[in-house]
């Protein structure tokens, strides 16, 4: 180990993203990207950016983007924070709302694996609450923890299971502390807690343009919440990088989120394919968790998750496998286009036969 590294850098175990192999062309169903292109209006906005303006720093206040987000979400621009992807915003959340010498951040044992990484990076205690046997989240068990705050992925990743908005509201109302709801996959569920942010000042909802808006390559996300929570995120941002969202990204994302009709149509196709894929996997003997996201979480009796992953990879199809307790027999499979899903099913049939 390089002796110039500090103790944190030497000991941190970073988040591991889905593989991006270059050895051959794959049917890529491992990183939950949207199979459909961004809105044509987003493309128009991209082409409309004045190239000579890129010599200038991007708009600091991000007024156009924040106003577009506020309009789409039915809130005020002052209740919107924009950042370089929801991961960056979540990192700011951990630094803004949890203390290293506090009672910790509470979240599920099986959820987005960046949460424990953020805790380790910022030195925040972790309060882990196991999911139930059926992989549902018992919110009452979360509420009873002594943690300083709670982080909930809804729908959850990698299970794909969702929690109804009325259940989230009951939890927030009784929590008495910061509740961060990570809604990266909400476009495929439709139970967003954003309307509740106008009623509860302890609720912050984090979203992304990567999944539902087909803009994973631009890296942009946003949070909605009480003005004091937004101000805390701004202070953290400005202690690190005052210009996290570039000029092109601001223009494209503002145009994208304004084209709600286009994305409702495309995401409805994803939902339709999700249901078809779930049924086809079940017909082949897979156990499939009920998904509210743009992926399914499935396992096959008699086969390890690693084996399913490797057999599919050999046949040119990438899915995601996590070698972790409780879920090692599962694979997370992104819902692709009809053609991509057919290729997956064909590859499964090939090795299952």
Automatic annotation (TrEMBL):
GO terms for biological process: L-histidine biosynthetic process. Residues 25-348 form the Aminotransferase class I/classII large domain. Its cofactor is pyridoxal 5'-phosphate. Its EC number is 2.6.1.9. Belongs to the class-II pyridoxal-phosphate-dependent aminotransferase family. Histidinol-phosphate aminotransferase subfamily. CDD domains: AAT_like. It is an enzyme of class 2 (transferase). Homodimer. It holds the Pfam family Aminotran_1_2. Gene3D superfamilies: Aspartate Aminotransferase, domain 1 (3.90.1150.10), Type I PLP-dependent aspartate aminotransferase-like (Major domain) (3.40.640.10). InterPro entries: Aminotrans_II_pyridoxalP_BS (IPR001917), Aminotransferase_I/II_large (IPR004839), HisP_aminotrans (IPR005861), HistidinolP_aminotransfase (IPR050106), PyrdxlP-dep_Trfase (IPR015424), PyrdxlP-dep_Trfase_major (IPR015421), PyrdxlP-dep_Trfase_small (IPR015422). PROSITE patterns: AA_TRANSFER_CLASS_2. The modification N6-(pyridoxal phosphate)lysine is found at residue 211. This is Histidinol-phosphate aminotransferase. The gene is hisC. GO terms for molecular function: histidinol-phosphate transaminase activity; pyridoxal phosphate binding. HAMAP family: HisC_aminotrans_2 (MF_01023). It comes from the Bacteria. Pathway: Amino-acid biosynthesis; L-histidine biosynthesis; L-histidine from 5-phospho-alpha-D-ribose 1-diphosphate: step 7/9.
């Amino acid at each position: 180990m390089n002796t110039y590294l500090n103790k944190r850098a030497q000991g941190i175990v970073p988040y591991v993203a889905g593989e991006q192999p270059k050895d051959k062309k794959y049917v890529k169903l491992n990183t939950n990207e949207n199979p459909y292109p961004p809105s044509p209006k987003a493309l128009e906005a991209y082409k409309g950016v004045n190239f000579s303006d890129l010599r200038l720093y991007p708009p600091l206040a991000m007024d156009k983007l924040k106003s577009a987000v506020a309009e789409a979400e039915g809130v005020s621009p002052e209740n919107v924070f924009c950042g370089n992807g929801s991961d960056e915003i979540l990192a700011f959340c951990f630094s803004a709302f949890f203390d290293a010498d506090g009672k910790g951040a509470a979240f599920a044992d099986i959820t987005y694996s960046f949460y424990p990484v953020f805790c380790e990076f910022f030195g925040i205690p972790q309060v882990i609450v196991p999911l139930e046997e059926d992989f549902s989240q018992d919110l009452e068990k979360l509420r009873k923890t002594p943690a300083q705050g709670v982080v909930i992925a809804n729908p959850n990743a990698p299970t794909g299971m969702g929690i109804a908005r009325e259940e989230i509201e009951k939890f927030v109302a009784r929590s008495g502390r910061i509740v961060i709801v990570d809604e990266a996959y909400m476009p495929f569920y439709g139970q967003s807690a954003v309307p509740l942010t106008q009623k509860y000042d302890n609720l912050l909802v984090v979203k992304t343009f990567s999944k539902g808006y087909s803009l994973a390559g631009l890296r942009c996300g946003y949070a909605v919440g009480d003005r004091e929570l937004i101000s805390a995120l701004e202070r953290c941002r400005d202690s690190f990088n005052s210009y996290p969202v570039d000029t092109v990204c601001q223009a494209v994302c503002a145009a994208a989120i304004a084209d709600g009709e286009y994305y409702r149509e495309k995401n409805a196709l994803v939902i339709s394919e999700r249901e078809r894929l779930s049924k086809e996997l079940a017909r082949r003997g897979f156990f499939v968790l009920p998904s509210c996201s743009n992926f399914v979480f499935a396992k096959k009796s008699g086969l390890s998750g690693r084996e399913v992953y490797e057999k599919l990879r050999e046949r040119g199809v990438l899915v995601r496998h996590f070698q972790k307790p409780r879920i090692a027999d599962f694979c997370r499979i992104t819902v692709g286009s009809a053609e991509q899903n057919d290729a997956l099913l064909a590859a499964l049939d090939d090795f299952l036969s």
